[in-house]
């Protein structure tokens, strides 16, 4: 279809969208096409060539969001227990990922200079990335908001202390010199390749008898555990360092229903317990609670 800009209408754009969807064009690709068209039309408006944007209100169905695989608490415990049992060198890395929700590259780029175990904080200042699938470089984190601090639980602190002891033991034997200052590194102090972490993660998961998931899914596992435990979504968003709160809602909003159900169930349980206590109170005995009168 060919139309002059001033003759382009919303109906034309809508018909184009329906035609493309019927032809099998993916919603994500189509949304990008319409976004590009909308930007071009906005530019034409700024140049006084058009008075309206025919693509501005075009509705495109959202792509189906696949359910994110996630371990249960029991499977998570079984995996970590097996890692400690075989004393795998990456045990502490996986535990820190689960306890903090960090991205894999952020953890692999973490330096001891950015960790304060006394204050139970770490600062995300680097991320390890593979350039051309071969050369490892330290880059800035994914978004400006990602360059932030993360609080550490006592469990995460314990894992980091074990990692430090492991490095000191290696240094004493003269097999390594961690001059780069990386928290998680190879025995000789060099960065760990991300694909090496993934391969070992798959091997350990299979040996531990838990479902195969991605290393990045440990970030989703951390979020799921927090939300299921009743942590407010705003705090989950801060911990994961999402660029916007809406990102957290979009990814994990469905999980808040589970947390909300747990909250109202807790309220009902408290009321029922109070009623049982009241039934056991002798008649005529008043409660010390304040009575509000209209």
UniProtKB/TrEMBL annotation:
Pfam families: Phage_integrase (PF00589). Gene3D superfamilies: 1.10.150.130, Intergrase catalytic core. The keyword Cell membrane does not apply. Belongs to the 'phage' integrase family. Residues 275-294 are annotated as: Disordered. The keyword DNA-binding applies. This is Tyr recombinase domain-containing protein. Residues 66-265 form the Tyr recombinase domain. Keywords: DNA recombination, DNA-binding.
